[in-house]
Specification:
Elements lengths: L6 E10 L2 E6 L5 E6 L1 H5 L8 E7 L2 E7 L5 E4 L9 E5 L3 E7 L7 H13 L3 E7 L6 H7 L1 H6 L2 E4 L8 H8 L3 E5 L6 H8 L24 E6 L3 E6 L43 H8 L4 H17 L4
Parallel strand pairs: 3-5, 8-9, 8-11, 9-10, 11-13
Antiparallel strand pairs: 1-2, 1-4, 1-12, 2-3, 4-5, 6-7, 12-13
The chain binds guanosine-5'-diphosphate and zinc ion.
The site of guanosine-5'-diphosphate has 18 residues, from helix 6.
């Protein structure tokens, strides 16, 4: 058949249910395309995906997904074997907390970092609103994360502190900002990229609807070849599942000791000859991080299905 198939590729920058906005080629042209059939039911493409598009009778259709360099995916309770891709081709996850107002919750921070590591992504930490606190105290509080190997940015939208370094770390990368509401995610993006004019509170508006199985989301292209993605599913971090066996690997500072324990299946809880606990006793692992591990391990063991 001599039907002319016009196929082209672009990146999904907005998604709602089965309708995607695709930014074509060099960026000026946006196309609305639907995701149909098998592609939609099996593992639907996500914001950030590069896709091929075909012109069919009735409109543009996404005909395929190009190989992904990374995904931010979750496994929800009850469907452990199925993953839901929230955002594709992410380079890094910026986990944002406020130094105060709201007070930082380290257990929640650890939970976010576990999700980052479980997806094999790069994570950076942003502590915003440092204008409200004593700098020395806040740096002490987050020292365990720096020691674990994370970049920790101390920023203030009010004073402009730390914004230059942060902007540099966003350049040329696709980033996702996560963190509790009210910590200043929208404010940060607005002051990093004046003219962007994100509504304060944006990062949580736009979808709502709570427990949708279909995830919507968007990707904003920014100057400096940076882009920032967001999706409603990111905020339900409490519902994410990580298998208990994968958890030790999700604590960066445990990694040098994994494989050094007496038992190869060591859970690093009460086993004799545990290299992780030995590091804890030597002071090479911070007690607060180890305690988080124990809590998350208990939770994961209780909720993860036994085969
Ligand atoms: P989001 O929910 O994480 O997107 O947070 P918003 O950007 O909506 O900010 C929440 C509130 O914190 C707003 O009232 C901001 O004006 C305020 N805020 C944001 N950044 C800073 C900061 O660096 N210092 C102070 N003192 N307040 C800030
Ligand atoms: Zn161990």
């Amino acid at each position: 058949m001599a039907e002319r198939r016009l196929e082209s590729t672009g990146q999904i920058i907005r998604l709602y249910a089965d309708v995607a906005t695709v930014q074509m080629g060099d960026g000026d042209v946006h196309v609305q395309a639907t995701i149909r059939g098998k592609l939609f039911t099996e593992e639907p493409p996500a914001v950030g995906d590069w896709v091929s598009i075909e012109e069919r009778s009735g409109g543009q259709v996404i005909s395929g997904v190009l190989p992904r360099k990374s995904v931010l995916a979750r496994r929800a309770a009850g469907s452990a074997s199925r993953r839901q891709i929230l955002i594709a081709n992410v380079d890094q996850v910026m986990v944002v907390f406020a130094a105060a107002s709201p007070e930082p919750n380290l257990a929640t921070l650890d939970r976010f970092l576990v999700v980052v590591e479980a997806n094999d992504l790069q994570g950076q930490i942003i502590i915003n609103k440092v204008d409200l606190v004593e700098r020395r105290e806040v740096e002490e509080l987050f020292e365990p994360y720096k020691k674990a190997g994370y970049v920790v940015h101390y920023t203030s939208v009010r004073t402009g502190e730390g914004l230059g370094e942060l902007r540099r770390d966003l350049e040329g990368k696709e980033s996702v900002f996560v963190g509790p509401s009210g910590v200043g995610k929208s404010s940060l993006l607005n002051s990093l990229y004046p003219g962007l004019d994100l509504k304060v509170g944006l990062v949580s508006a736009a979808y709502g609807k709570g427990r949708h199985t279909t995830v919507g989301g968007f990707l904003i292209k920014l100057p400096g070849d940076a882009s920032v993605a967001d999706t409603a599913g990111l905020r339900e971090v409490g519902l994410w599942m990580v298998p208990p066996d994968e958890l030790p690997h999700c604590f960066l500072e445990f990694r040098p000791y994994l494989g050094e324990c007496r038992f190869s299946d060591c859970a690093h809880l009460a086993e004799p000859g545990c290299a992780v606990r030995a590091a804890l006793e030597r002071g090479d692992i911070y007690p607060s991080r180890y305690d988080s591990y124990v809590k998350l391990r208990e939770e994961a063991t209780a909720t993860w299905p036994r085969w």
